[in-house]
Amino acid sequence: MRAVVIGAGIVGAACALALAERGAEVVVVDRVGVAGETSSRCEGNLLVSDKAPGPEADLAIASNARWRPLAERLDDDRRDGRPATEFEAKGGIVVAFAGGGAALERFADAQRATGIRAVGIDAAALAADEPFLSPEVAHAVHYPDDAQVQPSNATQALLAEAMRLGARLVIGEVTGAIGRTGRLAGVRTSAGEIDADAVVNCAGPWSAEVAARLGARLDIRPRRGMILVTAPMPQRVFHKVYDSDYVGAVGSGDAALQTSTVVESTPGGTVLIGSSRERVGFDERPGVAPAAAIAAKAVRLFPFLERTILLRSYVGFRPYAPDHLPVIGPDPDVAGLVHATGHEGAGIGLAPATAELVAHAVLGAPTDLDPTPFLPSRAGLRETA
Amino acid sequence: MTHVAILGGGPAGLAAAQGALAAGARVSLLDEGDRLGGQFWRHHERLTDPRLQHAWHRFGRLRGALADGDAQVHVGASVWWAEASADGVRLRATVGDADGDGRTGLEVDADAVVVATGAHDLALPVPGWTLPGVTTAGAAQALAKRDGVAVGRRTVVSGSGPFLLPVAHSLALVGSEVVAVHEASRLPALARGWLPRPWELAGKAEEFLEYAGGLMRHRIPYRTGSAVVRVLGTDRVEGVVVAAVDADWRPIPGTEREVACDAVALGHGFTPRLEAALALGCAIDGDHRGRFVVVDDTQRTSVARVFAAGELTGIAGADAALAEGAVAGFLAAGGAFDDPRLRGPVAARSRTRAFARRLERAHGIRPGWTAWLDDDTIVCRCEAVARRAIVERADVPLRAMRLATRAGLGPCQGRTCGRTVEAIVAEAGGAAASVGFDRRPVLAPVRIGEVAALAETDPPT
């Protein structure tokens, strides 16, 4: 059994590892190499706090549980300069300003019913947990299971582990399919042809283009996100801290600029401030508007940021599906093609569970996850493709 | 009336301002320094020794043109954002001390911009180069030129390029003993660069000889084909190891000798400051061995309304910057390329372009220098990243390598180490990068609050 995994981002790397450790021969194909795009241009969120009850929340809960032992294993196996995942089970705190507390509490209540741990915290506890938070914050909920990895490093660690188990990495661009119509037998790449029993499309924002080159239709589009990074400083932010407006923006289909405040520290001492979402195609040069909007909201949350130095910013493209659910499973038209994409801003967190579903689709490996809601054949996806 | 913004107040920017004013435009010139002049005319109103300045009268004329014309000059202006559109160019800057309370925001909208951001001096890493007492040649020169201060009592100057000569000369004039100037290029390379077609050198050879005469007067030896390959000391510089190097700058075993000194000035050429041009969308050509803004004969970049002049189009020195700046400013203001007033600058520019090629041939960095590094030599100083870590991650995309090693993620954002990190990656078999470390969307450090002030509406409650 040989599987070609297209894309060496977090989802491709996780799929490569899941397939390799279940005995498949794995070839990963990427245009530039490991973590060359989206997975090196995001925050590394492993979140349950932003998930409304539903299939993605269930997947996030399952994936969150899988990340803990996985990160431990990757970090224990480090060698030859392989970076640490920087996994931190720091927990998230979602806050609301005056007037927003009731909505946040309703959202948290619904989440609790699905098994997400969401703990209300009072003003005194909040002041102890996040002493630099604005005193205007009126309400806060603690999500102990929210965690973080350094996404680029975690991707590099995952792929290195897959390669230790025999996976190969080919630097090249997929140009077409091998096989007769409706049945893939491999891929043509700029680095040569690769025969395969299964092809897994993990090309993130570019997975629609990859699908088209392989004779399939898939409606995945890029959504631009921007993140600000401050100069290193002594730690003053201790959890992942969100404004509760985050929830609305993630699920939104609005094309215009949307921002929602996420502030957190990294082991390097910098503070990450996210994030914006804009549907503007693959345009890498945003104007100043998203940076200004993110900065304004972050200062409102943590007033000390006012005089903190912005060192750099970066943008990345997130792959989104029209119904805002990941797309995981066999292509309905092309046999031998499996998709694992459309994770939007949640791909880092959802990667381990996604890989388990891919191993199920490709190898028939057992899983207790329900693949149905994410299948590429679902109605929410077919209408637009 | 056409409004031309000029980014940078060194020779290129000042000449551009003069050119734009001559063509009838209104000018806004922004420079992050406290005074105009850039690196070339770095000075202090009281402390500067006039013997250390070159072509000072020209600086006076350029300042005069600014003072007499329709020009707004903003010094201490740190441009952190630049964008170009079909309608015009917008620059955003902060003005005032980085940590002061009185810092203000400045927004400049213009019809065209001349990017004249110049270059940083480039020092290749050497084992021990993080010891106090080691500076870049440019820093040694700046301290001497502006403040009359010598970086040490006994200084060794090492690197490549004609710039080492004025640095040694300045050091001697401000009272340091200069033990020697070590030029890594060997005589055959120097001869290939400097000797053919002497008519192209108009003035350059005399300038070189003038500095060489200065070295002789101060009895400073100029040693070609040699380099400082190690800096010695525990808490600060106590000496250096000097070795002969081959044509590729690889140290020749058995030639090492120790030299006592308390300061080292390293200078291996210059790195153009490309971030503003990149933010504006300008096409870039080359790789880590030399990456520059692409311009045509009119100094136009690939982006409408954006012109570039000086070191960011090729390292060629102040004469080239003056000529390119004059053309760029005049054209940015709507002047015609065949205007008789441009004859002088255009002629000068063809000479200086030839000079840039000679400089590269004679003094360009050769790949063998990495042989003088140890595995644990710090390459990225901000984040203390050693060569070993970079080599171990050389096979991943540059962006992933940076995040894994943290090379180039510190306060200087790769301005100091970017090119050398890329060279080490290339030597270890990594893929060449088109833009590498030079893309910095935030052009200069800015406070989060200053960015927040640009938000279009108050945050919703």
From TrEMBL, chain A:
Name recorded for this polypeptide: FAD-dependent oxidoreductase
Pfam families in UniProt: DAO
GO molecular function: oxidoreductase activity
Protein origin, superkingdom: Bacteria
Keyword Nucleotide-binding listed: no
Protein's UniProt keywords contain Protein transport: no
Annotated FAD dependent oxidoreductase domain residues: 3-360
Keywords: Oxidoreductase
GO cellular component, one term: cytoplasm
Top-level taxonomy: Bacteria, Bacillati, Actinomycetota, Actinomycetes, Micrococcales
From TrEMBL, chain B:
Pfam families attached to this UniProt entry: Pyr_redox_2
Domain FAD/NAD(P)-binding: start-end pairs: 3-325
One annotated GO molecular function: oxidoreductase activity
Top-rank taxon: Bacteria
Keyword terms, alphabetized: Oxidoreductase
InterPro entries associated with the record: BFD-like_2Fe2S-bd_dom_sf, FAD/NAD-bd_sf, FAD/NAD-binding_dom, Metab_Enz_Cyan_OpOx_G3PDH, Opine_Oxase_asu/HCN_bsu
Alphabetical list of PANTHER family matching this protein: ANAEROBIC GLYCEROL-3-PHOSPHATE DEHYDROGENASE SUBUNIT B
Protein name (database record): FAD-dependent oxidoreductase
Species, as recorded: Agromyces luteolus
Taxonomic placement: Bacteria, Bacillati, Actinomycetota, Actinomycetes, Micrococcales
